[in-house]
Amino acid sequence: MSLDVTRVQALCFDIDGTLRDTDDQYVNQLAGYLGAIRALLPRREPKAIARRVIMAIEDPAISC
């Protein structure tokens, strides 16, 4: 059996850490955005908030 590449329309990748550890990249990027409103987040570190948001997005069972 051979692969008919002319019929391939898309490739799907699971990027939740299986193929590449992307959590830290997403956390750092979101923390950068949150840093702009850091004054609105008293005593809260943007990186800690970003980590919780990313974890909640990846696993809806985890509550923020």
Task: Briefly characterize the structure.
By secondary structure, the chain is an all-alpha fold. It has two helices and no strands.
What would you note in describing this structure?
With 64 residues, the chain is mainly alpha-helical. It has helices at 23-35, 46-58. The termini are far apart. The model has no long low-confidence stretch (mean pLDDT 82).
Notable characteristics:
single chain; 64 residues; mainly alpha; 2 helices
Let me know the average pLDDT. Answer: 82
Note the beta-strand portion.
Answer: under 5%
Major beta sheet summary? none
Helical content stands at 40-55%
Q: How many whole angstroms does the radius of gyration measure?
A: 18 Å
Low-confidence stretches: none
> What is the count of helical runs?
2
Number of strands: 0
Structural class: mainly alpha
Which outline best applies? elongated
Distance between the termini: 48 Å
Secondary-structure element string = HH
Tell me the layout of helices and strands.
Elements lengths: L22 H13 L10 H13 L6
